[in-house]
Structure formats: structure tokens, C-alpha cells
Automatic annotation (TrEMBL), chains A, B, C, D:
<dbReference type="Pfam" id="PF03928">
    <property type="entry name" value="HbpS-like"/>
</dbReference>
<dbReference type="InterPro" id="IPR052517">
    <property type="entry name" value="GlcG_carb_metab_protein"/>
</dbReference>
<dbReference type="InterPro" id="IPR005624">
    <property type="entry name" value="PduO/GlcC-like"/>
</dbReference>
<dbReference type="InterPro" id="IPR038084">
    <property type="entry name" value="PduO/GlcC-like_sf"/>
</dbReference>
<protein>
    <recommendedName>
        <fullName>Glc operon protein GlcG</fullName>
    </recommendedName>
</protein>
Amino acid sequence: MSTFGLAAARVIVAAALDTAHAEDLKPMAVIVLDAGGHLIAAEREDGASNKRFEIAHAKAYGAISLGMGSRALMSRAEQQAYFISGAASAIGGALVAVPGGVLVLDDGAVVGVVGASGDTSDNDEKVVIAGIAAAGLTAQPD
Amino acid sequence: MSTFGLAAARVIVAAALDTAHAEDLKPMAVIVLDAGGHLIAAEREDGASNKRFEIAHAKAYGAISLGMGSRALMSRAEQQAYFISGAASAIGGALVAVPGGVLVLDDGAVVGVVGASGDTSDNDEKVVIAGIAAAGLTAQPD
Amino acid sequence: MSTFGLAAARVIVAAALDTAHAEDLKPMAVIVLDAGGHLIAAEREDGASNKRFEIAHAKAYGAISLGMGSRALMSRAEQQAYFISGAASAIGGALVAVPGGVLVLDDGAVVGVVGASGDTSDNDEKVVIAGIAAAGLTAQPD
Amino acid sequence: MSTFGLAAARVIVAAALDTAHAEDLKPMAVIVLDAGGHLIAAEREDGASNKRFEIAHAKAYGAISLGMGSRALMSRAEQQAYFISGAASAIGGALVAVPGGVLVLDDGAVVGVVGASGDTSDNDEKVVIAGIAAAGLTAQPD
């Protein structure tokens, strides 16, 4: 078992939201899942729309399910949209193939995943990467 | 719109987990939804089993969906199990009718709901009520 | 990360089926999931009915999702059927609350889960426990 | 009823994984279904991402459901994406229309299907075909 857990997840969420505020981004949802795809922590800021948690979750869940960041899933979707729609159904519906779902690595092993939604996909990914770095872990966005 | 939001949700989650620790309860998931049933914040402690977030969510989501605490839903289930199973299907499956899903009131108005899962249902409810009190709000467990 | 993986899962499946044959049980499905609830290995014997894999899976998946063997889930179902039906919906439908879903522990940590279906629930559980023992691991059926 | 069953499925899975290792492919999930679309055997190797079983299953299940290999489903998707997305919904979501889902024929009759996921779709298909050949059966990838 990795020691990746709630303590690291809190650092990631806080640092991701700090980064979003420093860059004056739109209200954001940030979510952290463990290596099995199960939620550790999530926050949705005031003013973020109703389902931003679900979108952030689906970026993260799709990424950890298929073993690549959601930016790589977007590349696949651009080439074979039918693969991504089929995969989404096969894994239970939670797969959004745009940037913002980033694998978390510790000593080269995938220990979890972080997702964000609220601003542009590129900005969502940026705050996630900042959050992961703040926890002293490695981000793999694609 | 109520001012109930992420600031209050953080106080609730932290106080709920502090209460669980003070009483030496099992690892816990705690979740806060707004009045529309949409997630504001959630944490699942290290050692809580995979789907404790989903169970805590289903207590809270069932409660806010039907406008009563999940203890009241349990009473209804004891009398009319077929009502609760039908209602669960009707609202999309997320309804667990045991204590631990507690409405949050501010000045008499429902502004959100809190759910917990990890220890006994009665203990789950106790930590949720403590969390809501710590935020200066009113808990309605049934 | 635990070292529990395909090598151990193969030992468990083979030993479970050997035990079923030695006791002249009905054709059986046996399934092994990792700690995150994801499939490692499964076999359904010739003559086992169409959906025995799904039943064995739902015993195992329910157990690992809630952190207790499916015998403990049965006890809960006998007391509060509405909890189990609600929990089944909340975790996505795969929860069968009868014996035969057994947690796998290594040095006290849950590293996976094994499920079986084909004969009586008690016999299904017996072959699973024999399989886990053959791999040198600890079975927790409730 | 065909004699196609667990004995042949074990040969297929083992030979498919041997082929993957000989070609130094990424960790792989391989799955065998009977003519009714019901699981006979499956293995997911250590290091394959969480949902590789589900993807491999959806290639195989889509193929046996529509009576053609998943390479033929990909051709259809390239021409009529709306047919494939509609068919996926209609059969319950488990249809991934890329190579790697291959029908198994014995004396000209379809007796089952094999799916794999882990490396490129072309490589996934190659290991499946090698597995089917090792069992003395005929592969129909499209």
C-alpha cells in the first residue's frame, strides 16, 4: 500500500485552489482519487456550477481507469471518438476526455489521480499540476 | 441563495472528523451537499473502505432529495420497504435509508445536507450533528 | 502497493476449484479482485449457469466496497434489508449479500477479495477460504 | 452445445499472454466469453490499468453481440459512428469498436469470442489471434 492518502490530498486540493485564485480563474472543483479510483477528497468552490464535481471526477476517473492522463485520452478521442465513447460506457460512464485529469506518481508508481473543472481545460490542468507539485509528487498529464 | 458554501462545509467536515477521532470511531467518509444536492466538499479517511464516500453520499442525497433526514427515511423503510426501494430507483440509486444523512438548516431554511459513513449508523449521525453545530447551523436528523 | 497480483490469484482460483471437485460440488465460478475492486482473474467452469461470474463478482465487489466479507453483509441484510438494497444501488449494483465473498489479508492489510458462486453459499465460501489458504494468505469471511 | 469451454479458454489466455511477453508488449487483460456472451475466463496482468478488463470485455462482448470481430465494428464506426454509439447503448454499454475482439470458430461455427486490451489495438488483436491458434481453433477478427 502506498502512503498516499488524505494528508497529501488536502495539500493538493488547497494548492490547486490557491493557484486558481492567484491566476484569477473561474470557480473550480478539484477532486483526488486513490489508485483504485476511489474518492479521497473533493471541494467545489462557491459559484462553480452544479455538476463541476462530476466533470472533474470523470476526468480523473477516466484517467486512472485507462492508465493515462486525460490529455492523452483527448488525443485518442480526436483520432477515434468511437473508442472514447465506447470506453466511457464500458467503465460506467465517468470518462471526460479533455485536459484536467492528471495521474499522480510517487517513485514511478501511480498512486492516485487528480481532476479539476471550472475554467478552460488547459487552466484546469495547470492548477492540478501545481497541486501535485506542492505535495512533492510527480504529475503525469498525458 | 444562502451563504452556505465551501467555508461552512470545511468547518463541518473538520469538526465531524475531530469528533470521530475523539470518540475513537472507525475511519470515516464525510460529505456535504448544497440545497440542490450537489457536492460542496468530501473527505474519506485512510483506512475507510472503498465505497464509504458513495454510502455517505447516498445517505445525504436521499435526505435532501426527499426533504427529511435519513433517520426518517429509515422509519419509512421499516414500514414500507417498497417505497424506499422505489424512491431509490426513481432518484437514480443514491438513497441509503439509515441514520447519518442530516439536513442543515439556517434560520429555518434547508441550506444543505451532510452525510457520513464508517462506524455504526448512530455514530455516523452523531459526528455529522457535531459538525453542523460547529458551523453554527441547525441539524435535522429526521 | 501490495505484491498481491496475478500469481497469487492463479493459485487461489486453482485451489478453490480443486476443493470444489474434491467435495463434488456443482460447477463453480471463482473470481479474484484487487484492493481497488478491479478484476485480476476469473474462471467459470463448464456447466455453471450463464451469470455465475456476475454473482461471484457481486459477492466479492460488495465485500471489498464496504470492507467486510459478504457473510457480514448477509447479517446486515437480515436486520436491515433496505440498507443492503440501498448500498447495492449506491455502489453501482454489484452487491450480493450471501456468503462466498471473502476478504484477503496479508500481514493484516486487505489486499484483495475472492468470490465464488455455483453451489450453496456456505460451500461457495468454503472453497474460497481454501483457495486463499493455499496462497498463504488470510481469509476474512465476515 | 460446443465442447468449447474452460479447458480451451485456459490455453487461449496462456498463449495470448506468452505472445505478449515474447513481443515485450505492455501489461494486458485477456478475456474469453462463450457463444452466449458469458465469461469463461479472464486474467489481468500486474501493471495493467484498473479497467483493462472492462475494455477487453467490451471488445469481445460487442463482437459476439453483433456477430463480427471488433475490427469490423471499427470499420462500421468510421462510416456510421451513430450506429456504434446506438448499438452500445442498446446492448448495455459494453461495446468498444477497435481491434482486439476476435470471434472463435470451430468447424465453421462461432463458439465464443476473445478480447484483449493493454497495448495498441493492433497488438491486442495479434495476441488474441495467437491464443486462438494455440487452441487449434479459427480466429475471425473482422
